[in-house]
What does this fold into?
Amino acid sequence: MNAMAEVVPVDSVGAQGLAPTGILDGVRAIADRRLPMLAQSIDADSVYPEDLMREFGAAGAYFRHLPMGPGLTPRRGPDLETSIRAMSIAAEHCLSTAFCIWCQDALGWYIYNGGSDALKAEIGSQVAMGEVLGGTGLSNPMKTVFGIEKLKLRATAVDGGYRVSGNLPWVSNLGPGHWFGIVFSVGTDNPRNVMAIVDCDADGLTMVANDNFLALGGTRTYGLAFREVFVPEAHVIADPLEAFLPKIRAGFILLQAGMAFGLIQSSIRLMEQMKRPLGHVNSHLPEQPEYFAEQLAAMEGAVFELAKTPYETSQDYFAEVIRARLLAGDATVQAAHAAMLHCGARGYVTGAEAQRRLREAYFVAIVTPATKQLRKMLADMGEPLAA
Ligand SMILES: Cc1cc2nc3c(=O)[nH]c(=O)nc-3n(C[C@H](O)[C@H](O)[C@H](O)COP(=O)(O)OP(=O)(O)OC[C@H]3O[C@@H](n4cnc5c(N)ncnc54)[C@H](O)[C@@H]3O)c2cc1C
It folds into this structure.
């Protein structure tokens, strides 16, 4: 599967010299400058913030979690924490943008952990720097692997690759020139699952805009129909998938914490802002911003600790990752709900931040792996919900 080609090291393409603090300062400056104005149109008019995504990429938001250092030497460990923090900064303003960042992070995570050097050479560094954008169609495979639904893409092996057919209902952060990860099954008698990266401009791929959502409208989410789409062997990153999955699953899940942390942070801010006008009555609400601030600090500590060893494969470790993700979804909904109650009627009008954050918060709990899937995974593993 490994077509040998020159692989461009991530750190040599413009972000070298940028330490985590430099990256995060840059991401915060961009987010604070652009997102307060943009968030409303992303939500209400499904505006996809493409140039912002590229700006974040140039600032280094999408590469610290990748396992490659200069000259393709492994880093001391991929730095998921910085990528999570960058996503969280965007999520303080807008979850659509933060989710697009996660999609981008996941695409790079697949490519750089995968077995195709040709793909790393072709688009790896551009994905790492946000010059090529894209996402991940792995919701269905993640549900398949954990016994929830059947794989939706099937392929036949042909000369030099595969012909893939089937439908994926939702894939985000897509568009012309964008790429995304898929998994398809090959063969009928003894099928095996193969993971590859596909380009949105591939012949036979039809993309139907799918933006009638409660929130997350600006994520360029498409329903995808594959009709005999050719996937070259050089774009296969794992064959079979099952051997590769333990390598990427913890990173896939932990990176999502950035969405939760930023949204909780903004809910705390909304509650704090209401103290002056409404503190005399809001003080009677059962949940106060201090509670969420304490919970957020604990969650960040736990996630950043787990994020130090994303390749660990023990059941104990993976159960902790699942529990952290479960808590992140629950806490996000809880914090956004509390912010809504603190804001009262101010938060209930069209265009108010509190109602948008509440709608967005549910996404953290339903995006794969959804709350119900996380609970099923723990149950199947014989693990308790809380350690
Ligand atoms: C805004 C948005 C963006 C997303 N982006 C991505 C992405 O980039 N990549 C990705 O892989 N997944 C994406 N998803 C899917 C997401 O990750 C979850 O898989 C999805 O929200 C459902 O997860 P669930 O576990 O709750 O499953 P459930 O909703 O419980 O069940 C899912 C199953 O129900 C079926 N179904 C869904 N809608 C309907 C309907 N209206 N009527 C009947 N059946 C239906 C589906 O075919 C699917 O098999 C996105 C979803 C949303 C809402």
Notes: The chain has a mean pLDDT of 93.
